[in-house]
Amino acid sequence: MAIEYLGLSEINGPLIALEGVKDAAFDEIVEFSINDGAEKRLGRIIEIYEDKAIIQVFEGSEGMSLTNTHTKLTGHPMEVALSPEILGRTFNGIGKPIDGLAPIVGEKRDVNGKPLNPVSREYPRNYIRTGISAIDGLTTLIRGQKLPIFSGNGLPHDQLAAQLVNQSSLGDDTDEKFAVVFAAMGVKNDVADFFKRSFEESGALEHTVMFLNMANDPVVERLITPKVALTVAEYLAYEKDMHILVILTDMTTYAEAMREVSSSKGEIPSRKGYPGYLYSELATIYERAGIIKGAKGSVTQIPILTMPNDDITHPIPDLTGYITEGQITLDRSLNGQGIYPPINVLPSLSRLMKDGIGEGFTREDHQDVANQLFSAYAKVGDARALASVIGEDELSSTDKKYLEFGKAFEKEFVGQGLGVNRNIFETLNLGWKLLHILPKEELDRIDTKILDKYYDSMA
Q1: Which residue ranges does the record assign to the ATP synthase A/B type C-terminal domain (predicted)?
Q2: Res 2: pLDDT
Q3: pTM of the predicted structure, to 2 decimals
């Protein structure tokens, strides 16, 4: 039964204190009625001290009064309505439609999700094709994996996110259903317009659910957005048997919102001012990816975060790296050379890649080609360092071949351009073409049988 109270005890930014509360619960949703019922707002109970409740107001507390605000405890946590018609729709950060269409009518579900028994998880297999060679070929995204993108301010992670939505698929030879859940947090109006326009023009919006939390939206709303998006993803994956790719951008704005709210609550800060529970909050989001035994669908996550000052040891990328299964790192120097996407393949990795590629998934030579490209590109760095000391003319013929390979690899394999969608066979064939730049005896990471079968045919 909903209980209603008149008046507030205290207002502090987005936080409100209400005294004399009975039977309140943590995470319970609260409805505020202000200006004699002319305006409604939502909040969430985040702390309870005996009969005093601390409430976060999603839309902010501006215009709210201590004396004439009506507060109603709903008796349930934050919920989102779920229905198959949710595909193709655009919502704000807390799940309200902003595309001019009617609200979703369907079963409502707690956005916090249910605890997942680790024993019920299945090991991720098979891959999701992004159409981007540096990802598909060298840091393959596996269904059920969480693979973050580490970026920096000014790098083209927004364009990469849009390209991932537009191009990602399960491949050509499958009849399984695939969809994307896209959640943007703290984005500016021009970036939000770019995302909407890009998805509409490519036709990807038809199989995408989009959540947009704008930069001028209340900061508290940002804390709910990824949870709403993941609740929708779990519904589509585990009840509608779809393979869902969830893209969350930007997790740094999410963590900064958490820091701001924590500071308002007067909590003792931890590293760089972030709350001590930053790790557990990030884990709560990231661990909602995976495959459940008996379910035909899967939830795969690509969280995107901008590293402050390009510092990979910053708490946000540092903790993210502990929780997730690898990372894709964008490089500022590659971006400065006009290479898109500017993915630095050496610090990038996918820890589950080996279990979702090869014969039966991609092609039998995939792992060997990836190993050889990694090895060769690492030697490019050594050759460049040596050339900077003794000059390129003094290098051995083999080192000169590595320099030639490095330029071609960055320009053709990594720098494929915006909107170019390659299938996995085009990516692997391009890898073989680049490896032909090197002497055959340098290809020591490829099995002899694979080398004999593919080397000459891919010339």
Answers
A1: 355-455
A2: 65
A3: 0.93
